[in-house]
Write a structure and sequence with these properties.
This protein has three domains: about 290 residues, no CATH class; about 50 residues; about 130 residues, no CATH class. The protein has 19 helices and ten strands. The strands form four sheets. A three-stranded antiparallel sheet has the order 4-1-7. Helix 5 runs antiparallel to helix 9 and helix 5 packs across helix 11. The protein is elongated and about 150 Å long.
Length: about 575
């Protein structure tokens, strides 16, 4: 297929794929010349031909005209459906499609038979044996003469003499209804209607951009196109469409002043085959490129391309040799081949230039690697010295001490972080306690309980210390504040538990909360306040802040905190 396309002019390929050959050849002189050059040569070698329905200007029928033609085609198919002989459909075959009133071509039939085909059937044997009178035998009877039969009306050219001793055929050819013709025609009608529905309604009076086409193979395309033109052994769908346009549509004046149908099948040879293996693939490929099949409404071809090309294998070798010589000398094959080679050369040159740029970059990188290589060489030389060798030997022995030192550093780091954690946890607990502050009533109740407990402890301590010289209780100072004693009965030292009085603003009043001095004094006051959701006022009583005051029971300051009696009132 590649060689075949190389031997075709570019304008021909473009017109087959995305154009209208019948119109393009009238507008493009180069295309007209290319088609005119290969047409005479198609008599001498196999080729591919192209047919399309157009008028003399190269324009296709409009969608409205095609829809009207499809209506006639549909009526014809319905009338002829399952009729065994075309004579049974006289209104369509003998009247509407009479051959002598429509067509004058190679086929001399009286009417077109588009939905039938000829088949061979055995001849009917004589019903009765010949009588004696017919043979001239019998008593008193004169011998009868043998009559020379007249030519058969079904075969007007048969003028053989009866005396001539020839073996007669046992079969005869008759017309029979072909169901395949009907089914394929219905497929074409449906597909073309579907294609026309996709055309804009405002363009229904404009010719189709791409006409309906048919692509085929022939050993001699000139003879084959003549048979197509005469509707002899041709494509029955294409023949029926052309006959409808001849019969039901207006005629126009031709070149000789006679009326001729406006639309007809325009024929051209588009490619020459010069190798035996090109016959099948050429018809298949060009039919696909031209959209020539009936299934999408683009063409008249109903039979798969490439299945009727057996004649290519019967072509004499000398014809193929002459065809190859003609293609090399007179076709565009050599020019197209040289152009293709030049394109490949240009691509190679571009890649070569790109490779040269890469070579320069590689050389630059190699130049950059020269100092690195020199350093590596020096390193290799140093590695061979005794000092470096000794250091390399000591390196494995130093691994275990280094790991032990690293573990020790990690342990010290953990110990450094431990006090921070010890402070953080009490602060978090203090913050949780601040979130759960009791109400003022609950605090007063707890205060009363605490005072009762403290007085009981004081009485116990006084009885225990009754043997001392001073009968006055040392636990009470001049201001009435109380001192805390440790388990040994001594005065509270700096290590004793100090009391912190926290006064918080909550629910419009102040509340007090006692926490251990050991927990609060270890942390920064700002950090304590940052952990609390409310604002706190801190006042410390004890040796840590005020040496003149010892730990005292939590109490409310009279100027700031209302009493329980006032709150209840």
């Amino acid at each position: 297929m590649e060689d075949l396309l190389t031997a075709m002019e570019e304008c021909v390929i473009q017109s087959v794929i995305s154009g209208n050959i019948s119109l393009d050849k009238r507008r493009n002189p180069a295309l007209a010349k290319a088609l005119a050059d290969i047409r005479p040569q198609s008599k001498e070698q196999p080729s591919i031909y192209h047919q399309s329905m157009n008028n003399k200007k190269g324009l296709s029928p409009t969608p409205n005209q095609l829809l009207e033609a499809l209506d006639h085609m549909e009526s014809y198919v319905k009338a002829t459906c399952e009729k065994n002989h075309p004579d049974d459909v006289k209104e369509y075959t003998k009247v509407l499609y009479a051959r002598n009133s429509i067509w004058h071509g190679a086929n001399k039939e009286l009417f077109a038979k588009y939905m039938w085909h000829e088949v061979e059937v055995p001849k009917t044997p004589p019903s009765t044996p010949p009588t004696a009178a017919a043979t001239g035998k019998g008593k008193g009877k004169a011998k009868a003469k043998v009559k020379t039969p007249t030519p058969s009306p079904s075969n007007p050219g048969d003028d053989s003499d009866a005396a001539t001793k020839k073996k007669k055929k046992d079969t005869k050819r008759v017309w029979r209804y072909c169901r395949a013709h009907v089914l394929e025609t219905k497929v074409f009608i449906k597909a073309l209607r579907n294609r026309l529905t996709k055309v804009n309604q405002t363009h229904y009076d404009r010719p189709l951009e791409f006409p309906i086409v048919e692509v085929g193979y022939a050993k001699n395309s000139i003879e084959r196109l003549s048979a197509h033109k005469g509707h002899h052994n041709s494509n029955y769908i294409m023949k029926l469409m052309e006959a409808i346009f001849w019969k039901f549509f207006p005629h126009v004046k031709g070149d000789k002043g006679k009326l001729e149908p406006e639309f007809f099948i325009d024929q051209e040879v588009i490619a020459l085959i010069w190798k035996v293996d090109q016959a099948e693939i050429a018809e298949i490929g060009l039919t696909r490129l031209a959209e020539g099949y009936i299934h999408n409404g683009g063409g008249f071809s109903h039979y798969p391309a490439g299945l009727s090309n057996a004649s290519a294998h019967k072509v004499a070798p000398k014809i193929w040799s002459a065809a190859q010589i003609w293609m090399m000398e007179k076709s565009c094959f050599k020019a197209n081949h040289e152009a293709e080679l030049q394109i490949l050369r240009d691509q190679v040159d571009k890649k070569r230039v790109a490779n040269e740029g890469l070579e320069v970059q590689i050389q630059q990188r190699e130049d950059e690697q020269i100092p690195v290589r020199a350093i590596n060489a020096v390193v290799k030389e140093l590695a061979k010295t005794s000092t470096v060798s000794s250091s390399s030997d000591l390196a494995p022995q130093m691994q275990d001490p280094l790991r032990a030192l690293e573990a020790r550093v990690n342990m010290l780091e953990l110990q450094r972080r431990k006090p921070e954690q010890d402070i953080k946890e009490p602060l978090e607990k203090l913050a949780d306690a601040g979130r759960k502050l009791p109400s003022l009533t609950e605090l007063n109740l707890h205060l009363d309980e605490f005072m009762t407990t403290q007085h009981g402890e004081e009485a116990t301590n006084e009885e225990a210390d009754s043997g001392n010289a001073d009968d006055e209780d040392e636990g009470e100072d001049a201001d009435g504040d109380m001192e805390m004693v440790d388990d040994d009965g001594g005065e509270g030292s700096a290590e004793q538990m100090e009391r912190v009085e926290l006064v918080a603003e909550s629910q419009g009043s102040e509340m007090a909360l006692d926490v251990d001095d050991e927990q609060a004094m270890g942390a920064d006051i700002d950090q304590v306040l940052a952990k609390f959701p409310r604002k706190f006022k801190l006042s410390f009583q004890g040796s840590a802040l005020d040496k003149s005051h010892r730990s005292a029971p939590p109490r409310f300051d009279k100027p700031d905190v209302p009493t329980l009696a006032k709150e209840q009132s």
